[in-house]
């Protein structure tokens, strides 16, 4: 009973909220990481690719459970094309989400070791990402041939006569998104091992190796050299990357390992407790793909600053010229209603119009000139002096611009 309650909460509350929160968080990650401060760095470009993969993964996996709750049927069992496409993209995205972290970890490690230059990182990111996507998609093409079959289904029917009732059964074929009969053993034994190695174990080992190297290199460079602002910025970016890889190790790896081992055992009857554990671990696995924005915000100081700037830009008020014009119009109306003399009203109205036109055209200029006479140097005729003129120009509400000009004049 309690297992059904938890599962109902996951289907009705958790997965829809995960889709909304994951979409908003990953879009904000894209918006911030593509700003001028981050977009030139290869690590941020890889993290942008990871954000796109996470959005697709959340929608693809969560849609299955939402569809099951709404229509009481698995979306994979609706047609052969949906079954194979859904399985292919689901497996490919789970592999890409793991291996893109491996690639960005190696990229960061090579940059720390000065194997790569920090300039012109975009071609390297594009090439490595395209190669990774090609390899992962090729490795998952077998799903288009393995899964999807029709199984006979016995439907009981009762026929009643006047004297007795006879029970008959009719056979029908029903499509199910499982492995075909000739590939059933391969799908049961080798595919879980394939997923276990390529989604969890091998990426986990490679990330541990690269992260240890990144931490050692960062600590050594901080001890030997004085940390500049540029080095501190790269250290903060490294901390962001380490937080994401740590979340992968804590959330994705245990879930994938347990799910794959459970698929290898494949008991005939699964207890309610084991089903509950599987559901919770699977939801934990999906949650990792929606947490990147929180991880970046907590671990990255530069990311927080850019996020605050983004919020301040979105909440910016109407430009000052419009506000000035609105305030002038309000003042005009106040003066019109407070002064009783028609002549005074007309005069105030014209004066306000002139002021607003001057402010909008940035024509209000204040010139302050000051001449300073100095004594002529030795050897120079006394009739010649140097006159220095300072002029200060103030336009609207903009900052003052100061210019100095030195002219040589003759005294008559």
UniProtKB/TrEMBL annotation:
Quick one: a GO cellular component term?
Answer: membrane
Q: Where is the signal peptide?
A: none
This entry's Gene Ontology molecular function terms read: G protein-coupled receptor activity
Q: Name one Pfam family in it.
A: 7tm_1
- The residues that cross the membrane are 13-34, 46-67, 87-110, 131-153, 196-216, 237-259
Assigned keywords, A-Z: G-protein coupled receptor, Membrane, Receptor, Transducer, Transmembrane, Transmembrane helix
Is-annotated flag, keyword Transmembrane helix? yes
Q: Does the keyword Membrane apply?
A: yes
For this chain, the family text in UniProt reads: Belongs to the G-protein coupled receptor 1 family.
The protein, known as: G-protein coupled receptors family 1 profile domain-containing protein
- Provide the species name: Adineta ricciae
């Amino acid at each position: 009973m309690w297992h059904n309650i938890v599962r109902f909460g996951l289907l009705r509350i958790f997965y829809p909220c995960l889709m909304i929160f994951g979409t908003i968080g990953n879009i904000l990650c894209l918006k911030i990481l593509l700003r001028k401060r981050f977009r030139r760095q290869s690590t941020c470009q890889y993290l942008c690719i990871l954000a796109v993969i996470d959005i697709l993964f959340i929608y693809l996996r969560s849609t299955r459970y939402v569809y099951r709750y709404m229509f009481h049927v698995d979306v994979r069992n609706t047609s052969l094309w949906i079954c194979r496409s859904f399985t292919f993209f689901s497996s490919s995205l789970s592999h890409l989400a793991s291996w893109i972290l491996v690639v960005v970890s190696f990229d960061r490690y090579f940059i720390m070791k000065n194997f790569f230059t920090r300039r012109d990182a975009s071609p390297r990111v594009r090439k490595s990402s395209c190669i990774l996507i090609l390899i992962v998609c090729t490795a998952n093409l077998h799903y288009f041939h393995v899964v999807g079959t029709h199984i006979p289904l016995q439907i009981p029917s009762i026929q009643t006569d006047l004297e007795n009732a006879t029970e008959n059964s009719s056979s029908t074929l029903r499509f199910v998104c499982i492995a075909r009969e000739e590939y059933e053993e391969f799908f049961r034994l080798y595919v879980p091992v394939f997923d276990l190695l390529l989604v969890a174990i091998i990426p986990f080992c490679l990330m541990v190796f690269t992260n240890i190297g990144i931490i050692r290199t960062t600590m050594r460079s901080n001890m030997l050299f004085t940390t500049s602002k540029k080095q501190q910025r790269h250290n903060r970016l490294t901390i962001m990357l380490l937080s994401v890889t740590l979340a992968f190790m804590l959330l994705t790896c245990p879930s994938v390992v347990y799910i794959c081992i459970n698929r290898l055992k494949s008991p005939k009857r699964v207890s309610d407790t084991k089903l509950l554990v599987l559901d919770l671990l699977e939801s934990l696995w999906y949650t990792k793909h929606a947490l990147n924005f929180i991880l970046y915000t907590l671990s990255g100081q530069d990311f927080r600053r850019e996020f605050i700037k983004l919020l301040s830009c979105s909440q910016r008020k109407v430009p000052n010229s419009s506000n000035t014009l609105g305030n002038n119009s309000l003042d005009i109306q106040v003066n019109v209603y407070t002064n009783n003399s028609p002549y005074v009203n007309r005069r105030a109205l014209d004066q306000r119009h002139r002021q607003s036109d001057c402010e909008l055209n940035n024509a209000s200029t204040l010139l302050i000139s000051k001449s300073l006479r100095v004594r002529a140097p030795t050897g120079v005729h006394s009739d010649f002096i140097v006159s220095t003129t300072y002029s200060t120009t103030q336009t609207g509400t903009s900052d003052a611009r100061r210019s100095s000009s030195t002219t040589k004049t003759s005294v008559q």
